[in-house]
Amino acid sequence: MSWTLTADRIAELARGAAVLGTGGGGDPYIGSLLAAQALAEHGPVTVVSLDEVPDDALVLTVAMMGAPTVMVEKLPSLEEVIAPVHALGTYLGRPVTHVACAEIGGVNSTIPVAAAAALGLPLVDADGMGRAFPELQMVLPTLYGVTASPLAFGDEKGNVGVLNTADNHWTERIARVACVEMGCSIMISGFPMSGAVAREALVPGSLTHCLAIGSGITAARAAKTDAVAATVELLGGREFFSGKVVDVERGTTAGFARGRARIEGAESSLDLAFQNEHLIARSGDEVFVTTPDLIIVLDAESGEPITTEGLRYGQRVRVIAAPSDPRWHSAEALAMVGPGYFGYDLPSHRFDGTVERTLEEVTA
Amino acid sequence: MHIGIDVGGTNTDAVLMDGRTTLAGVKNSTSPDVTSGIVSAIEALRAARDFRGDDIQAVMIGTTHFINALVEAKRLAPTAALRLGLPATRALPPLVDWPESLIAAIGGRSYLAHGGYEFDGRPISPIDVAELKGIAADMAANGVRSVAISSVFSPVNHDVETQAAAIVADELGDGVAISLSHEIGRIGLLERENATIINAALRELASEIVDGLTSAVRAQGIDAPIFLSQNDGTLMDEDYVRLYPVATFASGPTNSMRGAALTSGLETCAVVDIGGTTADIGLLVNGFPRETANEVKVAGVRTNFRMPDVLSIGIGGGSIVDTETAEVGPESVGYRLTSEALVFGGSTLTATDIAVAAGRADIGDPAKVAHLDPAFVQRVLDRIAERVAEAVDRMRTSPDPIPVVAVGGGSILLPDELPIFGAVHRPDNYAVANAIGASIAQVGGEIDKVYAVEPGRREEAIAAVRAEAVDKAIAAGASPTSVAIVDFDEVPIPYLPGNATRIRVKAVGDLAMEVRV
Q1: d(Cα B186, Cα B183) in Å, to the nearest integer?
Q2: What is the pTM of this model?
Q3: pLDDT digit string, tens, across residues B174-203
Q4: Best mutation site among A72, A75, A181, A256 for testing chain B: the one with the most B CBs within 10 Å?
């Protein structure tokens, strides 16, 4: 069923996106402002569920690529958000009918809202991951043979390009060079899909879910009940650790924020490893949970999600784990987003602490 | 000798100092006008310890006038915000996300024009003189009296801000004040621009207040220079305040922390300032308050001011004690302490009553709390100590031990030993710590920019930035021989090529005071 997204819900959307962002995705403030402005200027956005998208629809994802540090200075303009969508429609020779989020986390959950408002197109209540991941190809549509290319990119000056690449790896390499030349903060649109493919490949209900989490935290706080417990319930996950942040180690390598955080609890301490997003949570030999399931750090009292760059010594936090979309648990998907891909010699662990049995093993 | 004055919301404190020794300290009520409160504070100081006007070498003042003017949305000038950056940033024009009432209070007008730079200093677009002249004419037609100019990546290159200022000044004439964002804030366009707009709105008030302060001090026969303390504990002279009033915003907590450092003799410590309603905990590193890394909202506007990182918890002398749970606060009887607390014949059990019952303070009538169960009193005090210790632990940046200094009237609530941290330092003149802090402030210069550091030339690049900070401190009035680098931070920026690095350097030195024999 379709519904209407209005400016007054953007703050909740951004908060929910910070939860599903699992530590990454950057500060969603600029993205929220952009979405709120676009809604104020162009009116509310119609959000449609995947079931309502016609088979022959043309669905595109919209996202920001570049350095969040540049985005806080060279603020985006709405023109640069919509230009790549127009360019890709022209390239494909068909009108674009729907906009979708590539990831539901950080700025990339609110920029598609701005795009949909400015374009006057419906936004699909879905996304490509059901969470956030650090690399462009890490979306479920990849598993369905959908490529990022043709991918359009644009800057605020009116420069627009369309890439038709050999594979997603080349898309990332060429787009990254253009991104730097264009000032290190560009908007991209890609992963063209028909309605039929989108229905199969995307995670359904992401925006609804995201809003429910955001408003759940707000409501729990207003009712003076436990906001963390409310979030756990909404995610169908579990709280597995609480304590104080005692050490945060960060480095920037190969364009990612990589690091570790140590949280001291009553009896043991927890080690979190992240690359933009949280990847591994363990205590000594005991592994609590790993990617692709969600690892989320929340402020112990307010339930406010804390991004990896916001982690600081002394914070009282609670850490929760939640299941990711079941399709992330096939052997092929785990090769793309499992602990091994990120260089950890560990089997994937589910949110409940069990060692992963792949989808194939479960159904065999 | 010099004088330190702290003009707070409730009290105006003043101290007479000889170097770092406190000769006299007084507390007075703050007056609604600028002048009379200062006059009575100086007169009270004279009564406590006589001095001649020409004995005084400098007068240092900390004031909350400017932040109060903004919070109350009063006495603000009609202001325009001009941003250079087109075609970028169009979706989020100046004053976006400001409270409507505050925009109305400053008669805020928002303009976008071409100009600005990329992260590496390449121009986004050249400035358009005709466009800027047209904007200036519109400002004039709308009665704008103060202008804030910002541009994209001006911390990297501010040429277009300066050029645009010249064009606007030419059109609007000398009567209009112009504030430039690169002189006020750091990376983060909206926050820097917001601070610049606030500064612009305060420019007229700044002149008024500086004139008021100056005439009050001069009327006392004191010809010495007058300085105001900034958020980071350094000083600015009166001419600087006329240009950058926004820099005084959070000087209150800074001064109390710096005063605690001087009176305790500690340069690196945690300071717990306990008043009537809250305990404010901050960290001093090498004599300066640690600043917050997060955005700070002032009067509903997001900014990135250099503000001390202060954690406030609801524990103060007037906090109400729960007779069942032994929990303290956050509710407080506040200024009604002297009528509502048990020791003053009231009927509310407050933290002060507990301190008196425990024999830690001699306030009011101890007989009125003699009935309290000693075990209960101890439980309350233990809980206060535990919560304060937890807050200090939260503020420190590493598990290394750190000394704790207690100031403020409510510090009688703290034990001599704090869990985790051990002995609590209690300096002598804690009641006037703010004024002492104002009186000892130093002057500083800070640089915060993104640099493209070429491989193998890092040392060179850093040396150049450090020299720039030292020059800035000297320009602000520091004696050249005393200037030292107190803060250095180097952050590589992910995704950016050419080893783009954000470097922050702060240099400070003693205020160059004329030596008199």
Answers
A1: 9
A2: 0.82
A3: 889 999 998 887 778 999 999 999 999 999
A4: A75
